[in-house]
Specification:
The chain is α+β, with helices and mostly antiparallel strands and 170 residues long. Helix content is 21%, strand content 41%. The chain contains 2 helices and 10 strands, in the order αββββββαββββ. The longest helix is centred in the first third of the chain and has 32 residues.
Length: 170
Protein backbone atom coordinates (compact mmCIF):
# COMPACT_ATOMS: atom_id res chain seq x y z
CA UNK A 1 0.00 0.00 0.00
CA UNK A 2 2.78 2.43 0.94
CA UNK A 3 4.66 1.47 -2.22
CA UNK A 4 1.64 2.32 -4.38
CA UNK A 5 1.09 5.64 -2.58
CA UNK A 6 4.76 6.53 -3.04
CA UNK A 7 4.65 5.72 -6.74
CA UNK A 8 1.45 7.73 -7.21
CA UNK A 9 2.91 10.74 -5.40
CA UNK A 10 5.90 10.68 -7.74
CA UNK A 11 3.68 11.18 -10.82
CA UNK A 12 2.80 14.86 -10.10
CA UNK A 13 6.44 15.55 -9.25
CA UNK A 14 7.61 14.04 -12.54
CA UNK A 15 4.90 15.92 -14.44
CA UNK A 16 6.04 19.21 -12.89
CA UNK A 17 9.67 18.47 -13.79
CA UNK A 18 8.74 17.62 -17.36
CA UNK A 19 6.69 20.82 -17.72
CA UNK A 20 9.57 22.87 -16.31
CA UNK A 21 12.01 21.29 -18.78
CA UNK A 22 9.80 21.81 -21.86
CA UNK A 23 11.09 25.30 -22.75
CA UNK A 24 14.79 24.37 -22.90
CA UNK A 25 13.91 21.08 -24.60
CA UNK A 26 11.87 22.96 -27.20
CA UNK A 27 14.81 25.32 -27.87
CA UNK A 28 17.13 22.34 -28.38
CA UNK A 29 14.58 20.65 -30.64
CA UNK A 30 14.23 23.83 -32.75
CA UNK A 31 18.02 24.19 -33.04
CA UNK A 32 18.38 20.57 -34.19
CA UNK A 33 15.49 20.56 -36.65
CA UNK A 34 15.62 24.16 -37.86
CA UNK A 35 11.98 24.76 -36.98
CA UNK A 36 10.91 28.25 -35.83
CA UNK A 37 14.06 30.11 -36.81
CA UNK A 38 14.66 32.75 -34.19
CA UNK A 39 16.22 36.03 -35.18
CA UNK A 40 18.96 37.84 -33.32
CA UNK A 41 18.92 41.27 -31.75
CA UNK A 42 21.73 43.77 -32.13
CA UNK A 43 22.25 47.35 -30.98
CA UNK A 44 22.33 49.88 -33.82
CA UNK A 45 25.59 51.34 -32.46
CA UNK A 46 27.30 47.93 -32.82
CA UNK A 47 26.78 47.73 -36.58
CA UNK A 48 29.85 48.13 -38.81
CA UNK A 49 28.41 49.77 -41.94
CA UNK A 50 31.82 49.63 -43.63
CA UNK A 51 31.28 45.90 -44.17
CA UNK A 52 28.35 46.15 -46.60
CA UNK A 53 28.58 43.42 -49.25
CA UNK A 54 27.32 45.19 -52.39
CA UNK A 55 28.26 42.20 -54.54
CA UNK A 56 25.37 40.15 -53.11
CA UNK A 57 21.63 40.64 -53.14
CA UNK A 58 19.29 38.58 -50.96
CA UNK A 59 15.55 38.75 -51.41
CA UNK A 60 13.70 39.14 -48.11
CA UNK A 61 9.99 38.28 -48.14
CA UNK A 62 7.62 39.50 -45.43
CA UNK A 63 4.62 37.58 -44.12
CA UNK A 64 2.04 38.41 -41.45
CA UNK A 65 -0.42 36.18 -39.59
CA UNK A 66 -2.90 36.52 -36.74
CA UNK A 67 -3.41 33.80 -34.16
CA UNK A 68 -6.96 32.83 -33.24
CA UNK A 69 -8.81 34.99 -30.77
CA UNK A 70 -7.16 38.29 -31.73
CA UNK A 71 -9.56 40.65 -33.54
CA UNK A 72 -6.86 42.34 -35.63
CA UNK A 73 -5.76 42.49 -39.24
CA UNK A 74 -2.02 42.51 -39.89
CA UNK A 75 -0.04 42.95 -43.10
CA UNK A 76 3.39 43.96 -44.38
CA UNK A 77 3.37 47.19 -46.39
CA UNK A 78 6.08 45.76 -48.65
CA UNK A 79 5.88 42.07 -49.63
CA UNK A 80 9.56 41.69 -50.57
CA UNK A 81 12.79 43.65 -50.63
CA UNK A 82 16.23 43.18 -52.23
CA UNK A 83 18.94 43.72 -49.60
CA UNK A 84 22.73 43.74 -49.36
CA UNK A 85 24.25 41.86 -46.41
CA UNK A 86 25.76 44.29 -43.89
CA UNK A 87 23.33 47.14 -44.61
CA UNK A 88 20.49 48.21 -42.31
CA UNK A 89 16.98 48.17 -43.80
CA UNK A 90 13.51 49.04 -42.53
CA UNK A 91 10.21 47.37 -43.36
CA UNK A 92 6.80 48.50 -42.16
CA UNK A 93 3.84 46.43 -41.06
CA UNK A 94 0.31 47.72 -40.52
CA UNK A 95 -1.95 46.41 -37.78
CA UNK A 96 -5.63 47.28 -37.27
CA UNK A 97 -7.94 46.39 -34.43
CA UNK A 98 -11.55 45.51 -35.21
CA UNK A 99 -12.45 45.24 -31.52
CA UNK A 100 -14.57 47.76 -29.66
CA UNK A 101 -12.21 47.58 -26.67
CA UNK A 102 -8.50 47.71 -25.90
CA UNK A 103 -6.68 44.54 -26.98
CA UNK A 104 -3.08 43.39 -26.55
CA UNK A 105 -1.00 41.18 -28.79
CA UNK A 106 2.55 39.83 -28.97
CA UNK A 107 4.27 39.18 -32.30
CA UNK A 108 6.44 36.08 -32.60
CA UNK A 109 8.97 36.12 -35.46
CA UNK A 110 10.21 33.23 -37.52
CA UNK A 111 12.88 33.15 -40.24
CA UNK A 112 13.31 30.57 -42.95
CA UNK A 113 15.44 28.94 -44.09
CA UNK A 114 16.55 28.15 -40.56
CA UNK A 115 20.24 28.53 -41.51
CA UNK A 116 19.56 32.23 -42.16
CA UNK A 117 18.03 32.89 -38.73
CA UNK A 118 21.40 33.19 -37.00
CA UNK A 119 22.43 35.88 -39.51
CA UNK A 120 19.18 37.88 -39.46
CA UNK A 121 19.49 40.55 -36.75
CA UNK A 122 17.03 43.25 -35.76
CA UNK A 123 17.90 46.62 -34.23
CA UNK A 124 14.27 47.62 -33.71
CA UNK A 125 11.12 45.54 -33.83
CA UNK A 126 7.53 45.67 -32.65
CA UNK A 127 8.04 42.06 -31.59
CA UNK A 128 10.33 43.13 -28.73
CA UNK A 129 7.31 44.26 -26.67
CA UNK A 130 3.59 43.60 -26.39
CA UNK A 131 1.44 45.87 -28.55
CA UNK A 132 -1.72 47.40 -27.14
CA UNK A 133 -4.31 48.77 -29.55
CA UNK A 134 -7.29 50.92 -28.62
CA UNK A 135 -10.69 50.16 -30.08
CA UNK A 136 -10.49 50.29 -33.91
CA UNK A 137 -6.94 51.69 -33.78
CA UNK A 138 -4.61 51.32 -36.76
CA UNK A 139 -0.82 51.62 -36.55
CA UNK A 140 2.26 51.24 -38.71
CA UNK A 141 5.11 49.43 -37.00
CA UNK A 142 8.72 49.26 -38.19
CA UNK A 143 11.23 46.45 -38.11
CA UNK A 144 14.85 47.47 -38.72
CA UNK A 145 17.14 44.62 -39.65
CA UNK A 146 20.56 43.71 -40.99
CA UNK A 147 21.72 40.47 -42.51
CA UNK A 148 25.19 39.45 -41.38
CA UNK A 149 27.80 39.37 -44.15
CA UNK A 150 28.86 35.91 -42.91
CA UNK A 151 25.61 34.40 -44.21
CA UNK A 152 26.08 31.43 -46.55
CA UNK A 153 26.54 32.21 -50.25
CA UNK A 154 23.86 29.58 -50.96
CA UNK A 155 21.12 31.63 -49.32
CA UNK A 156 19.48 33.88 -51.89
CA UNK A 157 16.04 34.26 -50.31
CA UNK A 158 14.86 34.71 -46.71
CA UNK A 159 11.32 34.81 -45.38
CA UNK A 160 10.55 36.84 -42.25
CA UNK A 161 7.19 35.85 -40.82
CA UNK A 162 5.35 37.26 -37.82
CA UNK A 163 2.35 35.84 -36.03
CA UNK A 164 0.48 38.03 -33.55
CA UNK A 165 -1.04 36.19 -30.60
CA UNK A 166 -3.66 37.43 -28.16
CA UNK A 167 -2.17 38.11 -24.71
CA UNK A 168 -5.23 39.74 -23.12
CA UNK A 169 -5.87 38.61 -19.57
CA UNK A 170 -9.66 38.64 -20.07
Amino acid sequence: MKSTALKLSLIPLLMFGFGFALVPLYDVFCDLTGINGKTGRVEASAIDTARIDTSRIIEVRFLANIGSGLPWSFEPLVKKMAVHPGKVYEALYRVRSSANRVTTGQAIPSVSPSQAAAHFNKTECFCFTQQELAAYESREMPVRFIIDTAISENIEQITLSYTFFNVDKT
